[in-house]
Amino acid sequence: MATNKRMRIAALLAEGKTGREIARLLGIAPSTVSYHKRRLHLPMNPKCARRHVWTAIQRFYDEGH
Description:
Layout: H1 2-14, H2 19-26, H3 30-39, H4 54-62
Helix pairs in contact: 1-3, 2-3
């Protein structure tokens, strides 16, 4: 059940475990840990929350790169 998994992840985060450590301990993907972390309204690592500006990327290629 997702709620049990979320509670387990929350407890491990409270212990100071990283997302990667939690994923390894629970046998789940790191992205699953991130999903539950977001659902718990906990701060995300900015490196994991990158978003792309597709208009700027398209402009770059339109300029001939």
